[in-house]
Write a structure and sequence with these properties.
Elements: H1 2-38, H2 43-53, E1 56-59, H3 70-83, E2 92-97, E3 100-107, H4 110-121, E4 128-135
Parallel strand pairs: 3-4
Antiparallel strand pairs: 1-4, 2-3
Length: about 140
């Protein structure tokens, strides 16, 4: 009887966890969409930038007294790319020097250039992102 009780309790806790996670996933997507628009990283903006200069450059203000740890910045950005199903952490090379981030590599669609740039720019310690990412269709 105890086993059945704990099984039902675990199932209820799991169901509640899935309910909470599903709600937060849509909030995260809305947040990323808002940042893409705010930083002018929509697909049309990215295509225009890539057509003009071959790169996408965006900057954000740094908080006063914010310390910069380039290894932490690179690790955080790479982790974001690993967790994102549209981006490949192995196809995008990330470098950071004093909060100035450089992205090089390939993505499968222009909107993913903006997404990669936004995720990097939304990382603590990052003040500027230069993306030299080309668009290549995946097989």
């Amino acid at each position: 009887m105890k086993a059945i009780f704990f099984f039902l309790l675990g199932a209820a806790a799991g169901a509640y966890g899935m309910y909470v996670y599903a709600g937060r996933e849509s909030e995260a997507k809305d947040s990323v969409s808002a940042r893409l628009h705010e930083w002018k990283l929509d697909p049309d903006d990215v295509r225009t930038d890539l057509g003009k200069t071959g790169e996408v450059v965006r900057a954000r203000a740094r908080a006063a007294g914010e310390q910069i740890n380039d290894l932490r910045i690179v690790a955080t950005i790479k982790a974001k790319y690993i967790l994102d199903r549209d981006l490949s952490a192995t196809d995008i090379h990330v470098q950071s020097k004093n909060g100035q981030v450089s992205l090089n590599g390939t993505v499968s669609a222009p909107e993913f250039v903006g997404k990669a740039t936004a995720l990097a720019l939304d990382t603590e310690g990052v003040s500027n992102v230069t993306a030299r990412i080309s668009v290549q269709a995946r097989p």
